[in-house]
Amino acid sequence: VQAENSEGCVDAKESVADVTVLTKAADDGLQISTKKEDLAFSISCWLGASESSGLQDDLKGVLRKIEAELSGHNLDWRNVLYVHLYISDMNEFAVANDTYVKFITQEKCPSGVPSRSTVELPLPHVGLGKAYIEVLVTKNEEKRVLHVQSISCWAPSCIGPYSQATFHKNVLYMAGQLGLYPPTMTLTKGGAVAELELALQNSEAVAKSFNCSISTSSVLLVVYCSESIPSSERGKIQDKLEAFLKQIRSSSTKEGKLSKVLDHLSLYVLVPDLPK
After folding, report:
1. Taking the domains of the chain in order of start, what are their residue ranges?
2. How far apart are CA 210 and CA 173, in angstroms?
3. pTM reported for the whole predicted model
4. Alpha-carbon distance 236 to 9, whole Å?
5. Fewer CB within 10 Å, N side or C side of the chain?
């Protein structure tokens, strides 16, 4: 999500200039891919299936490798804006969280822990280990982080080791949102479409805390859909997304709050499973 006030934004052509990709293999089987940019860059790390020894050990190895890579750039976890965590089995989500929090802590990130999305992917089917991580890194530590851990009525809490959203250089990076009812933190009933609607409401609540809206300011919306969703329901998910955004824009117009609308991209990804 891009902030309403675009002052200080860098032109997209400048921000992706001179991008290079470096890939190297270590003796321990870990693979690192680094994409460098002027202001930010991403680091991806994974193990090959033949070197895998279970989610906990794989994740420890991957996190250690990323930590070492950050250190090689004179950076650490406080420079990480966002983490994409991919695991091979969502039933081991608790194991992944317990391992993750040993590396990324509030003490190491005094301005706030990075925002995060966690998704199950069939990693072993493509020759990878049990864990794959991509982090977005910046050399500029200036950021605002929303990390509400108490139960509230306006948005789901983040009791885990990640924040709801991270604001940096006029761009808001939002953690993955589920169709959870904030006061009880329970998944809403009614199926995938109902879950999406509540997840969007939660996303809008987080965006509003940064004075922006997913309906007018979004650059990219990624919708992860569990493969358990019947094919007959999948088309309804796209319809619900577009109807929800249209409804918010309409309300903003009536209230005289509508700013210039960005043409966002919507990406729908079918995955084996999502966090519960």
Report:
1. 12-271
2. 11
3. 0.85
4. 35
5. C
String of DSSP letters for 71-130: HHTT--GGGEEEEEEEES-GGGHHHHHHHHTTTS-TTT-TT-PPEEEEEE--GGGGTEEE
Summarize pLDDT for 120-158 with one digit per residue, the tens.
999 999 999 999 999 999 988 889 999 877 777 777 777
pLDDT tens by residue, 43-86 = 999 999 999 999 999 999 999 999 999 999 899 999 999 999 99
| Residue corresponding to tokens 């006061």 | 183
**Are 260 and 227 spatial neighbours (Cβ–Cβ below 8 Å)?**
no
Of 105, 86, 83, 109, which is closest to residue 96 (Cα–Cα)?
A: 86
Q: For domain 12-271, give its CATH number from 1.10.230.10, 1.20.1730.10, 3.30.1330.40, 3.60.20.10.
A: 3.30.1330.40
Cβ-based burial of 83 (10 A; exposed 0-12, middle 13-18, buried ≥19): buried
Kindly state the tokens that stand for 236: 């309804």
